[in-house]
Design brief:
- The protein is α+β, with helices and mostly antiparallel strands.
- A hairpin with a 2-residue loop joins β2 and β3.
Length: about 260
């Protein structure tokens, strides 16, 4: 498959990179360096962290749902975070065509096990081209025969899909680009299957917005009367405090918004 075809394939738009290109210089980013819901959590969230987020505390909820894509985090069988395709889940199924790459190997006991980087070896252009049709990560369609894992098995029954009913089309050479170009499908895939690799704008300074970034607790909170703790002279401004904390403590934020509106009008 030529590079010209690859360069025009709409599947390359399934990325979070450069999502704010058209918003510059219009957007002003008001963020909180003390965010809880959108806060950073390095590594794999522990069970206690996940339970805390799910039980209503909310801390690290955004990071948990990004890291859970391709897997499921839930309570009593109800999905609360993550998704069952894409993300960080691996693909143990066979591709639609025998020529597509296979990402599993058979163990001594006849079970399917994911290949290691050493097993995969050199990443060639042909492997990358084939991975668009049968990706390394969980593709959202297909199953395999657990009683006979060595048998090639291609199941296109939509009732067995873990992704949306149209997900198989994403991996077809003839329609994959069309599926990815559909705004509704593109948005759904970004939300459910494509993990972000950086924090959301609500939690940090965003370089793309330059001097149109505003750290709310440092710039607009009343430090002398803040209703929560003020570690290192920065008030603990949590998610949605713009609507939860009384106006006298955050009036400077509203003054800033009004002054921007008057100036831009």
């Amino acid at each position: 498959m030529s590079r010209e075809i690859i360069s025009s394939d709409a599947r390359q738009t399934l990325t979070w990179k450069n999502r704010f290109t058209n918003a510059i210089p219009v957007v002003h980013s008001f963020y909180s360096s003390t965010e809880d819901v959108l806060g950073a959590f390095a590594g794999t969230p522990t069970e206690a962290v996940i339970n805390s987020a799910l039980d209503g505390n909310g801390s690290y909820a955004w990071v948990i749902q990004e890291k859970a894509k391709g897997n499921i985090v839930g309570i009593a069988g109800v999905t609360i975070q993550g998704s069952d395709y894409g993300g960080w889940g691996f693909n143990p199924c066979d591709g639609y065509l025998p020529s597509y790459p296979v990402w599993y190997k058979l163990t001594g006991g006849g079970l399917r096990e994911m290949k290691t980087p050493a097993d995969i070896g050199t990443v060639t252009q042909a492997l990358l081209d084939g991975s668009r049709c049968n990706p390394l990560f969980k593709n959202g369609w297909g199953t395999f025969n657990g009683n006979n894992p060595s048998a090639i098995y291609v199941n296109v029954d939509a009732a067995q899909f873990t992704g949306p009913s149209w997900i198989l089309g994403l991996y077809q050479p003839s329609q994959g680009s069309t599926v990815a170009a559909d705004p509704a499908k593109n948005t759904q895939l970004l939300a459910q299957a494509i993990p972000a690799l950086s924090l959301p704008v609500g939690a940090k300074f965003t370089t793309a917005f330059d001097n149109q970034n505003y750290n709310m607790p440092a710039q607009f909170a009343d430090k002398t009367r803040w209703p929560r703790s003020v570690p290192n002279n920065v008030p603990e401004w949590r998610h949605s405090d713009i609507s939860k904390v009384a106006y006298p403590f955050i009036y400077k934020l509203f003054n800033q918004i009004i002054s921007m509106t008057l100036y831009e009008n």
